[in-house]
Amino acid sequence: MSPRFKCDRFQNKVALVTGATQGIGLAIVERLAHEGAKVVLSSRKQKNIDEAIDYVVGTGVCRNNLAGIPCHVNVKSGFILTKMVSPIMEKNGGGVIIFNASYGGYRPMPGIGVYSVTKTALLGLTKLFATELAHKKIRVNCIAPGVIRTKMSAALIDDDGKSADKEENPIGRVGESHECAAAVAFLASEDASYITGETILINGGAHARL
């Protein structure tokens, strides 16, 4: 286990991570794998999956604990995937589903309006499925990252390395993918066993709600 991760909360657990080959998704794969999970990576291209697996193996994870399947994910497929996996989770005694939304889901941003609205939909799906699946011992939560240092957010980061929303961000810096992965690991673990239907904002304190 990497010295960065001091616990093994996911021994004998299986995690399916979509959008798993870069940025936040890849950081989630690395975190869960280092905490003992067997992780299935899902992305659009097999080549990207293979490269991501090689990267995670290079951080000290056993290759046998990693697998990959090509899949395109959006709001509709997130809904369908939840419907597909929830019966399996119920049969196995329960499980956890975590959506990756965005700060923009609360405050739609000019230029990425459609993207923001799809993330707003994920906030609603979180509430819906949390209610529908609770009696099946399935918890459903969500993360809503702000500006995180990834390829996708490069246009939102200034030349000085600070995010475009720095005036609204009390911490005053760009977030890192591993910080999102840490929140996912918490929500997926038994440490969050009494939490469902919630969204954790990971945005340096930028205002989105009371």
What does this structure look like?
- The protein folds into two domains: 1-73, Rossmann fold; 80-210, NAD(P)-binding Rossmann-like Domain (Rossmann fold, 3-Layer(aba) Sandwich).
- Helices cover 36% and strands 16% of the residues.
- The protein is built from five helices and six strands.
- Helix 1 (23-34) packs across helix 5 and helix 3 (75-91) packs parallel to helix 4 (113-133).
In spatial order, strands of the major sheet run: 1-2-3
Write the CATH homologous superfamily of the largest domain. NAD(P)-binding Rossmann-like Domain
The CATH class of the largest domain, by name, is: Alpha Beta
Structural class by SSE content? alpha/beta
Indicate the percent of residues in helices: 25-40%
Alpha-carbon distance between the two ends: 39 Å
DSSP strand tally: 6
Mean pLDDT: 88
Low-confidence segments, ≥5 residues, pLDDT <50?
none
Give me the CATH architecture of the largest domain, please: 3-Layer(aba) Sandwich
Tally of DSSP helical segments: 5
Largest sheet data: 3 strands, parallel
Rg (CA only): 17 Å
CATH names the topology of the largest domain as Rossmann fold
Strand content: 15-25%
